[in-house]
Amino acid sequence: MTSMTSAEAGQEHPHTMRLQRFLARAGVASRRGSEALMTAGRVTVNGVVATELGTKVDTDADVVEVDGVRVRWSDEPVYLMLNKPAGYLTTMSDPQGRPCVAELVPVAEHPGLFPVGRLDFDTTGLLLFTTDGDLGHALLHPSHHVKKTYIALVDGAMHDDELAPLRRGIVLDDGPCQPAPSQVLERHSGTTLVEISLREGRKNQVKRMLGAIGHPVLELHRPTFGPLELIGIEEGSWRYLTDAEICLLRRAATR
Ligand code: URA
Predict the structure, then answer these.
(1) HSE-up (13 A, CA, CB side) for residue 28
(2) Residues 153 and 218 in one domain
(3) Which of 28, 121, 145, 198 has its CA 20 to 30 A from that of 153?
(4) Taking residues 141-165, what's their average pLDDT?
């Protein structure tokens, strides 16, 4: 680069950060994708091509462009969905150093990102993250808990009638559950695939409900969360929600 960005010129400003982080936070691409854009010479700062990954920008003062299109700094809340693999705790840090979901989502770009609800260590599937505390908490509030669908592989060959207690509302040791729509999807030799929908979010609830009718859960996956569906995201990967998905989520949270 032949000219300095405001940040490199030593001008004091609280909004100084590395260019690739700025691009990622502005939603242009992932941090890696942003680095690739830079090294490809597609990013300019104040009209000068910025290929150096150490380049710092002042998010208020510097004009950043990708392919000639201005990238604007945004303090807008962020929403993304992760396809959680098994073997990760739903927490942003673990004092015992066990793998946690924070390692799989862009926390450096989005400070304040938190998971909405939780999935067990061995449960896979859709986990929503946001920096929008109001929406996150609204989605978890018991008065408008959104519907979540789970697919469980359970031990034993199960007949559909055996799910009747769950459909009526089974009582667990921490109280009665709401009626849970559920059905047998596939019966194998010695195991059964079951779909179950819940609006509650009690600890280990699906495992406890199915365990209570004599079919311990062997594997558990969550393909939906409210209006969101986990489609086209590999295990361990995430993507930002679309504007349409954010609208649907807001509607679900205020219903
Ligand atoms: N119910 C469970 O038992 N475990 C989960 O991870 C989610 C719902």
Answers:
(1) 26
(2) yes
(3) 145
(4) 92
pLDDT at 1: 42
At residue 57, φ and ψ (nearest 5 deg) are -130, 155
Which residues span the domain enclosing 87?
79-142+228-252
Q: Is 156 within 8 Å of 215 (Cβ atoms)? A: yes
Closest CA to 186 of 208, 157, 166: 157
Active site members: 120
How many angstroms is it from 148 CA to the middle of ligand 1?
10
Span 15-49, pLDDT tens digits: 788 998 888 777 677 778 889 999 999 999 999 99
Ligand 1, residues at Cβ distance < 6 Å:
119-120, 123, 204-207, 220
Are 16 and 110 in a shared domain? no
Kindly state whether residues 153 and 212 are assigned to the same domain. yes
Tokens of 99: 């793998």
Mutation test residue for ligand 1: of 140, 174, 206, 215, the one with most atoms within 8 Å of CB = 206
The predicted-structure confidence for 212-253, as pLDDT tens digits, reads as follows 999 999 999 999 999 999 988 999 999 999 999 999 999 988
Q: What is the pLDDT of residue 5?
A: 62
**Residue 127 — φ and ψ, nearest 5°?**
-125, 120
Mean predicted confidence (pLDDT) in 2-27? 68
Asked if 158 and 205 sit in the same domain, the reply is yes
Q: How many domains does the chain have?
A: 3
CB atoms within 10 A of CB 119: 24
Whether 232 and 201 map to the same domain: the answer is no
Ligand 1 mean position to 202 CA, how many Å?
A: 8
pLDDT at 69: 81
Residue among 34, 33, 8 nearest 22 (CA): 34
24, two tokens = 């990622």
